Amino acid sequence: MNDVAYLSPFVPPEWIAAHGLRPRWLRLSRAEQATDAGAHRGVCPCAGALMERVHRAGDLAGVVLTTVCDQMRYAAAWLDAQSGPPVFLLNVPSTWESPETARLYADELRRLGRFLVKLGGHAPTEKEVVATLRRYDQARAALRAECLSVSARDYALVLDRLAGHAPSPPAPLPKGEGRNAIPLALLGGPLLEEDFELLDMVVEAGGRIVLDASQGGERTLPAVFDEMRVSSDPVGELTRAYFGTIPDVFRRPNTGLYDWLGRRLRATGVRGILFWRHVFCDLWHAELPRIREATGLPVLDLDTTEGDAGSTPRMFSRVESFLEMLRESAIP
Amino acid sequence: MTQPPRCLSLDQWDRRYAELCAAGMREPSYGGCLRRHVEDGDDRLLHLKMDDSPAALRLWNFLLSEEDRLREAQASGKRLVGAMKDLGTVPVMVYALDNLIAFYPDGAWWLPCIMEHGDGLLRIADSLGVDDSFCPVRAMLGAFENEAHFPIPELLVSSVGATCDDFSAIAQRLEAMGHPIFWWEIPHRRPPEPDEPSVLLPGMFRAAQSQVAFVQSELERVRRRLEEYAGKSLSDDDLSAGIHRANLVRRKLATLREIVFKAARAPLPSLEMLVAEMLAIHFCSDQYECLVVLDELIAEAGRRAVDDVGVTDEEAVRVFWVNPVADLRVMNLLEDAGGRICGTEYLFSHALDLLPQHVPPMEALARAALADPMVGSARDRAARVCRDMRAFGAEALVVSRIPGASHCAMEGPLIRDVVRRELGVPVLEIEVPTLIDTMTPTLQTRLEALVETVKRGRV
Lengths: 332, 459
What we know:
The complex is a heterodimer. By secondary structure, chain A is α/β, with parallel strands linked by helices. Chain A has two domains: about 5-125, 3-Layer(aba) Sandwich (Rossmann fold); about 125-330, Rossmann fold, CATH 3.40.50.11900. Helices cover about 45% and strands about 15% of the residues of chain A. Chain A has a four-stranded parallel sheet with strand order 2-1-3-4, sandwiched between helices. A four-stranded parallel sheet of chain A has the order 6-5-7-8, sandwiched between helices. In chain A, helix 2 runs parallel beside helix 3 (about 70-80), helix 4 (about 100-120) crosses helix 9 (about 235-245) and helix 5 (about 125-145) packs antiparallel against helix 6 (about 150-160). The longest helix of chain A has 21 residues, at about 125-145. Chain A is globular, with a radius of gyration of 19 Å. The relative contact order of chain A is 0.14. Chain B is an alpha/beta fold. Chain B has helices spanning about 10-20, 35-40, 55-65, 65-75, 90-95, 110-115, 120-125, 140-145, 165-175, 210-230, 235-260, 270-280, 285-305, 330-335, 360-370, 380-390, 410-425, 440-459; strands at about 5-10, 50, 80-85, 100-105, 155-160, 180-185, 200, 205-210, 315-320, 340-345, 395-400, 425-430. A four-stranded parallel sheet of chain B has the order 4-3-5-6, sandwiched between helices. A four-stranded parallel sheet of chain B has the order 10-9-11-12. The two termini of chain B are about 30 Å apart. The relative contact order of chain B is 0.12. Classes of the chains: A alpha/beta, B alpha/beta. At the A-B interface, helix 3, helix 4, helix 11 and helix 12 of A face strand 5, helix 9, strand 6, helix 10 and helix 17 of B.
């Protein structure tokens, strides 16, 4: 048992792997209905499902959570009081304008390293770290090249694999949806297992997700590593590639998210945005009006709760109507 | 012998005020009859019961005249700083500069209650896409938008990081509305690793020395920004003097809490104590007057304690209260149900703790900021609640949820479990909306049940 679970894009899986443990991206499921503390009103479905999954997990050496939202902080406190696997809470600063914050993140990676050693991992040699970082970077590079030619569902699944142990470049995948479909962006929080149906639903309704900006999608991939810096300062390079470049909603100010979104929306020709937020996720919820203002694109607000699988007729008809509206607006 | 104190309705206060004036009561410039605040829209006063002392009158007038005070300060050439979220640290720095005044725009969260929604602030927040799934702090957006309450500060300084998501999200929305914010990072306070250098913080929390150093570096950024804004330097000596003045307020509050929470009969009501404790965070925009207000409350409470009179009887159940209430009337309700407050953790205990004066001032401020009960684990906070409950002899705990507040979803059960295990006392978790009127019978019944449970346990 040497799997270490995580579900934040700010946890570098290669850092876990370099310590001889298996990183495992937690794709949560709505079937994991929260009990105990997680069942309270106001707990977001992700935090609730996480608590349930980790609490009952008998196959994890440890769990790494982050401070990017306070529900996860409280989930960590709750899990810490249970008899489940050890929990490490990685401090990811919200601010980024001072260099001290990057130093804090780098120190946190080192502290994570000590935690991993305690879990049964080993302190890696510099050579091991560099080799592991390169392996993950190469796998991601291959994926980036593929992203426009595969379906959104397949792409998301490959990203999941990449976030795990010993990634390899993805095998050729079936070509994506029809080129006449309406190009859409998916923006927001993480997809739970059942939510992948949303991606199929979009195809069925005549759309095509060309930009997966959900948590776990293209938006949350780290930057390409700089070969020189990987060799000279691997922790520094991890810090730059993860903390320094992943645009996210919790950053303060979160202008980086809008800069990235603007660039990617222009590059992909997106005509509408599916805004994916879990109920009680304040960070995404509060951004909705600004996303509308900043992008000038039609936005469909998809708020989901636990037990509200993506395949529900309500959601399907909303997606269908949204695409219908986009289609009509294209007719001169 | 002191007359037994009473809690008065506003109508009763009108008569009381006339009596006090006839008896020659002298008031400060912001003094006057409480009724005038209702005329300004503070309708909640019509449904509150307030302590009958001149000290309480001064406290209420001090609180409810803050907006006027801020405008006067601005008109006199002082510059305003909107401190946000940290609740108690940045204002100490601001008040160390004589040409700046700090206040918390977050305080607008009580306006919908005080004005019984006559302010329309929550409707404005709704229209800005921040609906009632967020905590009432969203009223702050409305206050910035309609500019009908506090004057808009030219500088906003907000802590972020280990803060509640509601606040972080609302503040980011505010910035996007055209109000730039100077953000500073407050990291999650973690337990020090074995062999890692650590320090004891105010409130008895322990933190890694490296975290203190990090927060200090963040506060140094705040210091530089304040210096730019004030147009003058903020030396360590200035800061030490500022810390000394803040500690005067904190010492007085500690004295007041000691008298009130430990007396056989509560010498002051829970409502006035809540208002008094709030003075700690930014001195209600006047540090010197704040001291006078507290002196009068201490004198009144002390007299009553010596004379063994109070607003509750000796049988009142001693309750420790966690989180501030969105509707102030709940404080009256507790006493109506047979309870009294004996200890609080209103999210800003770190603003009540003395700032360390044996270390350099910036380090002292960093330690205080890291001692915020909300930036650490909920289990740390629960441990502090247990310590304070023991110190004040509390017999029960009420965890009051703030509607929509992200931290409230999980902290209640975490605190409850620790307190039950450590102290074995009854715990009640309730949610208090901005106005409790439609829920009063339910809340009253639940509080009465808590009181009865404790009383049965005494037998």
